[in-house]
Write a structure and sequence with these properties.
Structural class: alpha+beta
CATH architecture: Alpha-Beta Complex
Strand content: 25-35%
Distance between the termini: 24 Å
CATH superfamily: Creatinase/methionine aminopeptidase superfamily
Number of helices: 4
Shape: globular
CATH topology: Creatine Amidinohydrolase
Number of domains: 1
Order of helices and strands: HHEEEEEHHEEEEEEEE
Number of strands: 13
CATH class: Alpha Beta
Largest sheet: 6 strands, antiparallel
Radius of gyration: 17 Å
């Protein structure tokens, strides 16, 4: 069952999204070569709490951090650790904020340090631009299909692969709610959820430079990695659909 949100609930989620954006704007410029991913988590926790928010991800059973920090072939859900970031590492930060009883969720991927590769820069630019295009499909009267199609077309037309075992999701009082928001077309348009006012979802794209096949990382029960070891990335925004417009919460 989809839990549609009231205007007041959406206003509360906007405030949580503002906290999330402020924390990311504060922390990301501090990330540099030689820093551990655990240090990033410490900075994020401090920033969220200083603004009157609470951690979101630590409300998932057996997960005790504020963020996920996936590097290179790690796709999602990698916990912060003593891993020391290297020049040229591709880092994904997935972050959630819990405020006023509601969750917001956001992810970005970027290159750490000054070492850049044109192929990697293009890989990341495609994901970011594709998500931005997909967000425009989240409007009253459209279907989840329309979002999924833009995500799939954007990634695959550039020669990359969608990680099909992972999807976006609804969110609200729970971090993961209905409906699922796949990164690829899954059945006829009219068989997917039609978008209505009050729908709040996290739209995200998880994709790989290689095949897109996913496995659990050996020795890490949370982390999911590409089977072929190719680079992966994730971009995500939370949004709320209103009668006449759509709010990007993060």
């Amino acid at each position: 069952m989809i839990n549609y949100k009231t205007p007041d609930e959406i206003r509360t989620m906007q405030k949580g999204g503002e906290i999330l954006k402020e924390v990311m704007a504060e922390v990301v410029p501090q990330i540099k070569t030689g820093m551990t991913t655990l240090k990033i988590d410490e900075l994020v926790q401090k920033g969220i709490k200083a603004r009157g928010g609470d951690l979101s991800f630590n409300k998932v059973d057996n997960y005790s951090w504020a963020i996920c920090t996936s590097v290179n072939a790690q796709i999602v859900h990698t916990p912060p650790s003593s891993y020391v970031l290297k020049d040229g590492d591709v880092l994904t930060i997935d972050i959630g904020v819990y405020y006023g009883g509601f969750h917001t969720d956001h992810a970005i991927t970027f290159v750490v340090g000054s070492k850049h590769d044109e192929k990697v820069d293009r890989f990341l630019a495609v994901g970011k631009e594709t998500l931005e295009k997909a967000l425009k499909e989240a409007m009253v009267g459209n279907y989840i299909y329309d979002i999924s199609k833009v995500l799939q077309d954007g990634i695959e037309s550039a020669g990359y692969s969608i990680v099909r075992q992972l999807t976006g999701h609804g969110l609200g009082k729970q971090l993961h709610e209905e409906p699922y928001v796949p990164c690829f077309v899954n059945g006829p348009r009219e068989k997917t959820v039609q978008i209505k006012p009050g729908l709040v979802i996290a739209v995200e794209v998880m994709y790989a430079m290689g095949s897109g096949e996913m496995i659990h990382e050996p020795g890490n029960s949370w982390s999911l990695i590409t089977k072929d070891g190719s680079l992966s990335a994730q971009f995500e925004h939370s949004l709320a659909v209103l009668d006449k417009n759509t709010l990007i919460l993060t």
